[in-house]
User: Fold these one by one.
Assistant:
Number 1:
Amino acid sequence: MVYVAGIDIGSAFSKAVIMAENEIIAYEVMPSGGNYKLTAEQVIEEALTKAGLSLKDIAYTVATGYGAASASFSSETASDISCLARGVYYLFPAARTAIDIGGQFTRVLKLNNRGRATAFLLSEKCAAGSGRFLQVIARVLQIDLEDIGELSLKSKNRVSFNTGCAVFAESEAVSRIAEGAAKEDILAGLHRTLAAKIQTMVARLGIEPDCAVVGGGAKDIGLVKSIEEGLGCRLLLPEEPRIVAALGAALVAWEKVSKGG
Amino acid sequence: MTEEKKPEERKRRKTATEAASRVGPMVKAALAENLRAKEEGRPIAYSFIYSGYDEIIRAMDIVPAWTENYAGVCGVKRDAQRFLEKAESENFSRSLCTYALCGLGFDSWREETGEMPPNPPWGGQARPTVMLGSGQIICDPRYKWYQAAQHYMPDVPVYVAGLPYPPYEDDYDYRDVQGYYVKYIVEELRGLVAFLERHTNRKMDWDRLSEVIDISDRTWNMISEAYDLRKAVPCPMGTGDAMNTMVPMTFMMGTQEAYDFFKDLYDELQLKIANREGVIPDEKYRLLWGGGLPSWFALTDFNYFNSKGAVFPAEVTYRLVEPVYNLDLPRVSDPLEHLAWRWVKYWAYRHDKARKRPGSNPDVERLIEYIEDYKIDGVVMHEAFSCRSWHPGLIWQLNQLKRIYRDIPSLILESDIVDISSYNEADTRARIDAFIDTLEAVKSR
Amino acid sequence: MKSQYFAGVDIGSTMTKVVIMSEATLASVIGPTGPEHRKLANRVMEEALAKARLSFDEITYVVATGYGRINVPFADKQITEISCHARGVGHLLPDARTVIDIGGQDSKGIKLKAGRAVDFVMNDKCAAGTGRFLEVMAEGLGVSLEDMGRLSLEAKNRVEISNTCTVFAAQEVVARLSEGVALPDIIASLHEAIATRIYGMVRRLKIEREVALTGGGAKNIGLVKALEAKLGFPVLLPPEPLLTGAIGAALLGKDIVGEAVEKGETLVRSERRLTEASIFT
Amino acid sequence: MPEEAGSRGLAAADRYYEDYGSRVRELKKQGKQIIGYLCALTPVEIIAAAGLVPFRIKGDVNEPITKADTEMETIVCPLVRSWFDMSLKGKYEFLDGIVIPHACDSISTTYNVWKNTLNLPYSHLINMPHSTDGPSLKFYKALLNTFRTSLSKFTGKEISDQSLNQAISLYNQNRAKVRELYELRKASPPLISGAEVAKLLIASVSMPVEEATLLIDSVIKEVKQRGGVLAAKPARIMVVGAEVDDVTFIDLIEDSGAWVVADDLCPGAREFFDDADVTADPIEGIAERYLRKIKCGRTFREKKGDYDDYLEERFGHIGRFIKDFKVDGVVLYIYKYCDPYGFDVPAMKSYIESVGAPVLYLEDEYSMSTIGRLRTRIQAFLEVLGSK
Ligand SMILES: Nc1ncnc2c1ncn2[C@@H]1O[C@H](COP(=O)(O)OP(=O)(O)O)[C@@H](O)[C@H]1O
Ligand SMILES: Nc1ncnc2c1ncn2[C@@H]1O[C@H](COP(=O)(O)OP(=O)(O)O)[C@@H](O)[C@H]1O
Ligand code: SF4
Ligand code: SF4
Ligand code: SF4
């Protein structure tokens, strides 16, 4: 059996996927923290442990993501777009559009019927348009990142923000809470803002069904619903959306190994 | 590909052609010539490239100071920020054309202190005798910039020559209106000559003007023929180099030197083709630079593309000529009238072609033409945030191209021409990497 | 005439400041602005009153300023930070012609003439050019805000911070730290980045000497030095930069009362205090 | 002229403003053809003379721009983006055509985008020159004749000189009414608020000119009748900028304790203060008005005399407004990415200050999210004025 690994050192989370040929056998997700090099080693170690393997069993490792270069043990690096495309295709062969909501950027890509990206768009580099905004707000509202999605669905009255800056939105959220606004309403407002930005990107690229949503932001069901509402269509959602790029990286590794012999 | 980030010690970009590598010194020499002219009291004209008056200035022996070029030089040297900041401190919005802001920052600084700003890139830009704007074409800064500069140099006269060209419309043909366009342009150019005679104590020598125009016509042809050679596989010269060779095309038109330059380029490219010598030995993707001015501080991105197996045989940007013999120009004796006809016909060059393809327009038609002629695999554009002339409409052009022609991989980079704070090398390269992957995906379809 | 007391209440985005003055400052309190502007303003006011040994009724006029100025129900008048900082600096540093105020939510430049604002510029759109930037960085780096300035003076080199966005820059500097870049170098580079942004904006006013620095940012010696390097000359600092706006507010209150007295007008005070309207007897 | 009951006075202006386009929607149902246009430099007289209803496309500060970005770059001025966004969102589905003047880069470089994404039966770019010299005027007249021919091709009817002259006088009447309206602003406190004027004028460019004139006239009567009901406020403000087609910003100033009593804006004084002369060739008078009389930053005026004369030539009208309307301070309100006005700011600011009025320069993005930010600046500016 040939084993390969994909690793995605994201700005927010690091993920590793171990595959036996083209079957996923283990994965791990952990916060990236400040030291990418260390995190890269840890995340692959954890995943390997789950798989009952060690690094020397791995035939080929491909790294991707913001801190890909820090995974010094990897055999090569690949761009996030191509990893995402491969990962999405593996999970949803019918997907022709994918939205990835990551910590720094939102990416929208178009896929062909062979799972390759044929076009893509990236968001602006302002935290107010990224998944990072969710983390910031979750922290000030003292809610677990995991819980914001469900909670926001309870909202009856969306609160809209006066500021376009993620940093100032933080203090604004705090004041709104003090004024008696419900946390779910603040979250719902936030979701709408983000969803609107994402919709515009999708529209600019042109949506083709099916459309998948991946990346950490996709774990936020409130955000996903808000995007669905805006786009007027259902989105395909993987069970663990955060590992899609790492999965794609592992697939790149597998291609290498299986082709290169 | 490692790039130093320190402005001082950036290494010189590698060019593919010998011709392109000669350009840096040419620009430097031109700037030095400006300073010399200033010392000798010869008239200097602030000028815009491609304003249809190159030949007039040359024939009258007026020294052009290409203000866009100087801003670009500051950009290349990564030393524009202080001038942009100065302009901002004068209350100019940072969203305006950064060529103009850089120039206005520089001028207001020079006028305020009475001397060149400290360590100006390549000796600096001398105070002009006159400023020659142009109306209606290309952009608003072409008349607003010099008007704004006058606020700091109230005694320097400005002339704005109207240089329109007919829009592409459904309900009439450009030939229905070309007559009054040409007439207007001729009058405006005549006004320019009179203005220059009034303010520079130079006289127009009309015979000389005809000679200069003859050189420039021949240069137009020579450029077109040289650039056509880039259709070869492997491609002998890319857009990175064309961002250098645009210099003799736009800053030296009407001079023998420009003609000779392109003749040399032509010969060099011929030779390269004979030797099957390409920009890169293993050419995987042929890309079209489909619009947008480049980020002058990041020309090495072209080399980065090359390192990924991609080459740019053609670009829309700065391809400001067509073979004159294809333009169907009427024979006229007035040199100004010839200029006007050439101008109008150049801009209307693809109107007829566009009409044959439903949903097309001349801009889209040009993209299609280049994609076919140069065997293009993908289109790259750059949206420079500060310039509203070349950049609005690119998204639509790309969308339309895909709607009426075919789905072709495309990438829109977003940054600026001069303002480096809008640029992030790591991000840009990540985008390029991803784009290369999409090219690969489409190619192996 | 029996002595009159004036209060200035400056509800900033980060800090709440209260000053009670008559001829001179009698009491001042600085506290963090919690989410509950209203209540806190009350409490800080009470604290200041206790310090000054005065009751609220003895205060002739209350002026509120700052980002949360509308949330001071007991104020007689709301005046923007710009006028208050100008007035405060005019009083504390009469030589100043230009004020640079670096607060939590915004930074501003103010041009002074005879101790009054005549022109101003401000940034409050993106946190990247405000004091908030440094707060976020301090938190990320695990350094107290108070130590940022001192630490930065130990810098030997500069590092490039490629992100402008506060949120991403915070993340970037943490990564830099883990790569082994020296903490002082990082902090100094951050100061330089923000000084560049602020200087670029304030220059619109045609900076004239002397320049006074106010607001929380002025408490950061590293930032002060970075700005001085941009300006090319030293700046003036008030004894407590954070209080400048509140002092200005109190003084403007005093001006208003003084003018009214001069004109023989009855001062209309805020509704809450209507019952004590006849304050001039 | 349809003279429906109740469609007059301030309340009607308000309604037409709030439900912008409601009048042309009705007309459309009655079989009229509606021609949308951008910016005050469109020679509406010619459209009206062709028997079509000119309708000014308007943005909406409250509506976040979402659809426009799919076809138009975000480096276009936010006003144009908002116009386009509203159009894409179907706000102006009643249009039969669109006319775009070569006003500024944001407008002219997006002509293709407008033309090809809206896909209306009629579209036309008036390639207006930027200079005011003789040849430019001649050229502009030729362009207007091309436009005239093109419109008649569209309607299938000649546009006679007589109908042009009639349209010119209808518009001149309308403009005279606006000037009469402005007289009401000279009182202190003004008889009509800046917000009321803004809504009325914005509403007025959304309906046939005769109806607009009646509407303005009815407002003048109503205001005269109600007398001096507006409270005294400490400052009289003039707003100078490109286009303000949303009342939010004017409201903001007036809520902060000032009256807006004058402007150099579109719709506003820039657009309505100069008439088109009735000339033998009607196109002549129209050309003169749009090219030479309307003082917009997009039109280049040659310098004659010394630099101070030049500033007077370009901005003298602002100085006269300051004097005639007893203006205390000027708000220079410029959109980001606006080239014609952006480059004018230093000269304009220094001119206005030289006539003794303090200036607040604001760069804005035409979005509700910036309103809060502007508030503090405006309040501080009013305080600065107050302490003078
Ligand atoms: N459990 C969760 N619930 C909601 N949102 C989440 C969750 N986990 C991560 N996110 C969001 O996803 C983002 C990170 O996504 P990720 O794809 O890991 O980005 P990156 O690859 O840049 O690290 C975070 O900024 C956060 O907003
Ligand atoms: N002791 C301190 N040392 C350094 N910086 C400080 C200190 N106290 C406050 N600051 C800075 O001042 C800012 C707050 O300033 P302040 O003028 O109170 O603003 P605001 O009025 O908006 O609350 C903070 O964002 C922080 O950057
Ligand atoms: S074309 Fe663009 S870059 Fe050139 S001067 Fe005009 S606005 Fe500036
Ligand atoms: S506005 Fe806020 S979130 Fe956006 S770049 Fe600035 S600091 Fe970052
Ligand atoms: S605001 Fe400026 S850029 Fe926008 S349409 Fe008007 S003149 Fe053009």
Note: The pocket of iron/sulfur cluster (ligand 5) is lined by residues D 77, 79-80, 103-104, 106-107, 242-243, 298, 335, 338, 340-341 (CB under 6 Å).
Number 2:
Amino acid sequence: MSILDWIYLAIVSIGAILAVFRMFKGPDVTDRVVGLDVLTTITVALFVFFAMVFDRYIYIDVALVYGLLAFVGVLVIARFIERGF
Amino acid sequence: MIRKIVYSIFLATIVLALVMFFAAYPFGKNKMTVGEYYLNNGVAQTGASNIVTSVVVDYRGFDTLGEVSVLFGAAAGVAILFFVLAENRRERKNITSPNFVVKVGSRIIFPFILLFGTYIFIHGHLTPGGGFQGGSIIASGFLLLYLAYPGTRVSRKKLSAVEGLAGLTFVLLGLYGLMLPESSFLFNFLPKGQLNALLSAGILPIIYIAIGFKVAAEFAGIVDDMMCEVICRGGEK
Amino acid sequence: MEKAGKLNKYIFTVVVLYVSWILLTATTRADELIVGLIVSLLVAIGSFDYLSEHGLSHLTPKRVLYLIIYAPYYLWQVILANFDVAYRVLAPSMPIKPGIVKVKTNLKTDSGKLALANSITMTPGTLTMDVKDDTLLVHWIYVKDETVEGATKEIGTPFEKYLKEIFG
Amino acid sequence: MIYYLGSFLLIAIGLYAIIIKKNLIKILIGLNLAASGVNLLIVSIGYIKNGTAPIFSKIGINPSAMVDPIPQALTLTAIVIDASELALAVAFVVLLYRHYGTLDIKKIRSLKW
Amino acid sequence: MVNLANPILLIAIPLLFVFLIAFSSAFSKSIAKYLPIFAFGLNVVIAIMIIPDVLKNGLVIATTAGFKPPIAIDMVVDRLSLFLAIIASLLGFVVSIYNVFYIDEEPEEKFYALFTLLVAGVIWMIITGDLFNLFVAFEVTSIAAFGLVGFHRDKGAVEAGFKYLVMGSIGGSFLLVGVIMLYAATGTLNIVDIAQKSAELTFQQKFLAYALIFTGLGIEGALFPLNAWLPDAHPAAPSSVSSILSGIMTTAAIYAIFRITNTIFDYNQIYFFLMFFALLTLIFGEVAAFFQKDIKRMLAYSTIGQTGLFFFAFTLHSTNGLQGAFMQIINHSLSKSMLFLIVGGMIMQVGSRNIDDFAGVGRKMKVSAFFLAVGMFSLMGLPPFFGFWSKLKIIFAALQQTNILMVASVVIILLMSVVEGAYFFKLLQAMFFGKPKQDREIKEASLGMLTAVVVLGLILLFVSFYPTPIIDFTHQAASDLMNKNYINLALKLGGL
Amino acid sequence: MRLILGYFLLYFGAIFLFLGAFGLIRLPDLYTRMQASTKSTTLGAFASVLGVGVIHPDWFVKCLVVALFILLTAPVGSSALMRAAYKTGVPMTDSTTIDEGKEFFGEEQEGEAK
Amino acid sequence: MNMSLELLLATPFIGGLLTYIGGKVHRWVRNIFAVLFSLLTLGEMSLFYNTTFKGDVWGSLFGSKLILQTNPITWLFLLIVTSISLLVIVFSVDDMKHEEDHIVLDSYYMQLLFVEGAMIGIVLAGDLITFFMFWEIMSWTSYFLIVHGGKKSMDAGYKYIIMSIIGAYAMFVAIAMIYSKAHSLVYPDVALVLSQSSPTFTIWIIILLGVGFFVKAAVMPLHTWLPDAHSEAPSPVSPLLSGVLIKMGAYGLFIIFYGLMSANLAKNIMPSIFSTPVLLYIVQWLAALSIVLATFLAIMQEDAKRLLAYSSISQIGYVVLGLATGTSLGVAGGLFHALNHAIFKSLLFLAVGAVIYRTGTRNLSDLGGLVKKMPFTFVALVVGIIALAGVPPLNGFVSKWMIYEALLQKKEVFLLIMAFVGSTGAFLYVYRLVHSIFLGQLSQKHENVKDVPILMQIPMWVLVIATVIYGIFPGLAMDVIVKGMKMFGFAPIAYNLYGFPQGSTMGALKVINIASVLMISFVVAWIFFLLFSKSRKVSQYDNYAAGQVVTPELKYNYSFGFYMSFGRVIKPIFKISIERIYNYWVDAAKIFGDYYMRRVYTGNLETYNSYIVIVVTIAAAAVLLGGKIW
Ligand code: NA
Ligand code: NA
């Protein structure tokens, strides 16, 4: 990993931490889910980034699977929030 | 409060003991005997470039058969718990119609999800994905459909047929190995092919496809049951 | 745009899926192509009813051309939107004046309305909450015009002219 | 070692939730945390420094640079098992809620002794 | 020619039928009913075909994927695991017949699939030669059991199922951690291979792994105090399921403890430690059973007590003790399964699980009641039933060492046997001589259900009056275990 | 050249990923936070992934698939979430000027009740 | 003589099954089968008369041979078992007719034959496994016989089976301890090993086996099951229990004392009192206490069968007392009394059973004046009570007399006095029996009572004759007893057909001796009468002294509180009822168990989960402490 990669990682990680902060702080369930959603997107990006860093093409598939499942997850949660569980 | 403290101490004790145990087996050290064997011989013996797949489907394929069975058992259990006689089912009145964006978006993305899930389990022997991942992706597609159209239900009979057939394929492929001179369950009797080719690794992709279908059917079943519980709750005892 | 027949929709789905498969595998190896075709044919059986109601009629050259034109425009709007966000988030005064407004649309097809809704979501200061018939409910971070007509003009119209061509 | 510690902590937190929490959902979360801890532990066992995934996607990858594939396979199995258990558990919770009208574990004890 | 005497078929065939049930249910509902009978009928045949091989070589190893044991998972059958597998298959077969007439609640096909899966999982736990595979088998068994316990979906069933699920999951996680610790220490998952490679480790180095594995298996194996789910779950399940749960499933978990203790953790301290668990299990099971008003709950607690008894015999760590344990396992499996089947039929007639409502039932359901008495007598260890021989053996084995601890243990065992007699006789007495409470018409159970009961009963009577082959067989099985023939033969035959 | 463009895209993405998250913290109510996060993180991830595709040309197609996927799914999720928040009554910030949602959803709920 | 012991053992079991199956055909097939098979068993048994020793290996278990054997002593017990069983079955044919449920009756006969078979097994056993096995079979088969008697019999049966199990398990421990030393349970091997083992070990063996036998023989304080069980059981079963089954306890005592321990061994390892090993001496005292206390309790009973039941405890006391003397004479007396008691107690129970059969009650105060209605039963009962009281020339006399003589020779005065008191007390209660049932006023209800059918009379006739024969010709029994005792190392006793000649070990059986015993008894009885008749209180039911007009209602109640004055004297005995002590502890244990079980299985999942964590924590702590928690 080059220094450039490290810096990239640092910036994105701070973003991730902020998202986690929102996840824990709330105050509404929806806030937490939004935090989670942001975290998910960041994670997808990171997966692809790590694929590059470790030179493993196949990690991209992992990113895609993850992104897809997270997407469906958010929809499900949104639906349940609407119903009031 | 005392309870919390006491159990915290207990758990700390457990963690400490675990630390002590693992301190004796240093982190990040070299691989173990059997694992090393797989890395050195896996490609030659199974034809799968993804050694994890060769472990999951071939060397430890019997574990995977169990795993499939566990999932099957869970799906059946959920089906039992959420079972509602057809005549007892009643629509819930206060279901709000889903968001238009979700509705149409889900509908459009559904075919792609199916395709993508299939892609994942067909490439299971080449990439980190596999039958489980592919299957769950397909099931998530069904989940989306439920979100978009709360009234629809997947045909349970079709799901049963698919999961049954997929399971049968797995076991029968395994049993075929017993009829060969090697007389070994799950013996990889097909040609191994060229490394990294789609058609390689003998029976591994076939099994993974079967698993993919099975997992998809089972998760879809679970989703269907849960949705039915949410939407057409009924049959209370 | 008329609703298409089953076969029409099926072929359309196969085509779309096959293209996606090729993109996914990102290879032209024969085995992948053959398997991809088979998979597309099979998957389409189960899903052709969902992808689009209009089938192959999406694939007229004009529509495809408009799509190709629309893509960079959309992307540009997205980028603009982000600078807008950056400005609002980072500016110490935090210039926001949020509100929820209605926006009308002339688009008839579901896919068209969806595209409009998504476009609005991804572009400066607006986020579509729901669509009903010809009305979009939009959260606007800086409400410039509270009337339906005004909002429609501000938010919807720039995209509609392209989308009208693409989705009808 | 930090991974080990992390997994132990996950296990401990999970167990703590299982024992201390009264809400069924939280108990399930506890179960899943503990299970994740176990999975993390398994993966950590197979970790080697600078190791890569054991996939020969290109010619000439050195097997000795790869991590032990067994723990990965085991985790895969364990995850599916955990997911299955979780699905069933959720189903049980839904039915419990239907029967008892509460998610408080202390109130769900018609069977005792 | 296909060699049908392959232990792997004992698992593969039931699994095949599990999926067949799922598949067939898409087309016809009624086929599913009969498929488990075929599955376990075949299993019994195959198990019997394996007997000659096992008697000849002492051990049969079945490979998977065409690789030798440490590389791939293997199934290992020696005398001990074979006879347990036979019992499991047999119970599966008999109870499947019973099910056809007993289960009348939807969704039936799911029930049959899970039931078949449950028994398959039990057999799996018994014959697997791989530690992680054992965990998988454990989970297969558990998940099937969870679903089946909740089958009735009523308040009690759901609560019991949930409690069982939570405790079972915790157990599974502990078991898995234990297995992983051994993997970390040895780099292999094959039981024999681990036994070999961990030989140089000290007791203390391995103890935590053992404790975790023990805890995990002990939860399923009904050892006190890990067994609190059991008295809820066994009664809540349909009686045919209780029959399998009590009859062989807890036993399978205990068997796994036997096997792992014997191969990997064969230290005297451990046996000493286990003895406390055994005695506590015995005491709490029997005493609690005494106070029960619910007939199935009483039987469930009795299962705990019986488990304590044969686990105690195991902890004696002698050929005689093991033989006693194995004999008691046979006794308990046959008797307790039969009892649950009978009680299931009676509950159908009486419409209640309260013991008081069973007054006079014995005079109406004569065949059922007769075999109920036979089963209870055998569990109590009254001659001439098989339980007498096994209890005799256990006590003899215990008093081989005449130290005060053993004498105290024997006193406890016998005291608990008295307690057992107290509650069994109370029930029998009410059933045969009590005045019927209600004027509800009580008929004998249906012929199909009786068939299952009678088959088990006749087997029990047969081994009672002709125990010699079993005594000899269990003796050989016990000395195999003591001499570590499992390891020795696996090394010789398995190419480890 | 390729590397420069790639890393430019990566950093461009990273900054917006960060911004989106930062907006989550800074903005006053859920709705405005969602405005920020949806747009920024989507673009951030999109650019990031494409950046990788540029650096690794043989991966480009695959990266494009991922990027497009993000671009297409993100608005759907946000839309669903925001409607859910609105329907469950998550409060809006005080500076909110207009709220036509009541009317929009009101008819619908009536319509469904019959 | 080629009769096989297995066949003898198998006959009643096979017969039982066939009887049960026969019942499906017709009730008479069943009845005939039952009688035939018990007769057959008796016949087979009789073939072993004069067999001094015969042993068969019938199997092997855990490396120990299973043996059936016979010798004159076992023959004596076989005689008791098979003959009384036959008579009981014959008696049952009519007595049990009232039972409507034919399945219940079918299984009743089957169980009778099974109990007989089990007892034969016990007697024939040549090793402890066989012994114990049949012991247990006897316990549960006889349990089923007891609970045939209706609602109350269930509690009685329950108490019986639980105490039997406790007793049996005490034996079980002893047997297992022996096995661990000897690795064989064949009597000679056991005897050999016991002769080499430490005193403590031997004492434990005796105590543990003794508990088992005491329970079955109902020696105080382990007798509490007997009064209920024997009185609540169906009429024909009571003689089997009282006459035969409790003798198995006596047989067991004989086997351990003289078969396994051998008399001299017992002396070597223990201090002796009155030249009796201390353990045997304690047994003697327990037996003597049983004699006296049970006699008192019998006197107080209002229920005819209960009275006989307490009497059995007292009479078995004589048997055990005799067996525990350790001298040839005493042991012979004990064995002989076992036979005699079987005969006359069966006779008494059958006679009372006959009365119950006709009147439907066994409450003494409801009965009276039946002498004219049931003359034969009256005769049978009188013969029985004379024999029981030990009056010559009936059989009870000779055996009791031998026991007195043995005690006299050992100069155990206290025990002798207690034995006498028991005998005297017996007069009181047997008189009560005959008086309350047959003498006095006839109840109006019983105006139409007839004597019992012939099938019920025959067994009584047979027993009456036996009582007389063994009374006049004690040599018939002594022939077997002495021959058998020789095999156990006892010095032979000179005897002849009519009694004991001059110069035999026990001195001649002279009329003077008999007379003096009789005299003493009568004197004591008279003293009692004088002492207590003065202080007798007037009860409202006492139509002798109330001075009121005797109304019809009153006159039938005259026998209530017959020995009430006496009752006041022995009241303290009731107060410290052993049964109440047992019940107290059982209740305490139940409450304790219940409380703690509830605390463990709370129904709360959190608690259950924390158990798991605690177990793991303990293990973890053990690891952290270096594995040193044990
Ligand atoms: Na894979
Ligand atoms: Na688990």
Note: Residues 600-630 of chain G form one domain.
